[in-house]
Amino acid sequence: MAKQKKKTLRWHPAFYAGIQIEFQEDADQLEFIQEHTLGSEPVRTDMLIIKKAGKQTLRKNIGRIFRTYNIIEYKSPDDTLSIDAFYKAYGYVNFYKALTGNSDTVKISEVTLTLVCSHYPRKLIRHLKEIRDYKIQTEIPGIYEIIGDFIPIQILITHELPMEENLWLRSLSNRIRTTETIGNLLTDYETHKTDPLYRTVMDIIVRANKKTFEEVHSEMCDALMELMKDELEDARNNGHNEGRNEERQEGIRALINACRSFDISPEKIASQLMEQYGLSREQAVQYLEQYRNQN
Asked: Strand pairing partners for 250?
């Protein structure tokens, strides 16, 4: 039998969503441009973040070095930040400065470079210290500021970032091992479950860490029920009132979709429907089928 081809995960769209989640507190000051073409050349950087007029420092920890034009290069968990990758990204800074607008439209003093990766780039750091004579400064875990260049440069190691401030960027990984991380994601996602940015990031996190999520299904489902208890109680009460069956249906639909967002098995969802709404197993299965392709 032919070996099944491993499905490729599209990390970059999730990163674009995750970086916007991280900067929500400063979003009114920023413009996010994905895969920005540098000048008229067929060269693209992963993301360009333009800081709008004003000299105030961003509140977010990963944006404190930002100036007006901020070039972002991202390496997925399966990729490494190599020496050549650094020079390629550094070249993007020069391309962007030289090819945007008229002569000297973009001031080099207003450009920064941020490199994002999952693994500590040991060879690159050694190269920057020994060959470029740069110094590496780390005041916040996971944020390595490169000192010694005219251009402000930082390297973000996602798994080292503080969970309390960078939960979603830190969790953009295929190596989630703790129920604490999953619990934190679950809690925050419940607050933002209608936001497509959160849905995009959560989808890739679940699919990249399917085994870990499967191992904690029971805990996740119990936590999800606790988070949704007010909504479920309202839906049950509404369902007992004549003419309020629509709210009950919406509560059932919300429960099914929320559980599916976290890859909870149909059997577990059916059990929760039976417990929360007093349904028979046949009725629960019918609802699962009814809402199979609905959001």
From this structure: none
Q: Do residues 17 and 161 share a domain?
A: yes
pLDDT in tens, the chain (295 residues): 445 555 678 899 999 999 999 999 999 999 999 877 765 556 788 999 999 877 688 999 999 999 999 999 999 999 999 999 999 999 999 999 988 888 899 999 999 999 999 999 999 999 999 999 999 999 999 999 999 999 999 999 999 999 999 999 999 999 998 888 988 898 898 888 778 899 889 888 988 887 787 676 555 555 555 555 555 555 555 545 544 576 677 778 777 876 776 667 788 888 888 887 788 999 889 988 888 765 4
106 token code pair: 């973009």
Token pair listed for 145: 């500021």
Per the CB < 8 A criterion, the answer to whether 48 and 36 are in contact is yes
Residues 109 and 145 in one domain: yes
CA distance 15 to 212: 21
Domain hosting 37: range is 11-165
Asked if residue 16 is part of any domain, the answer here is yes
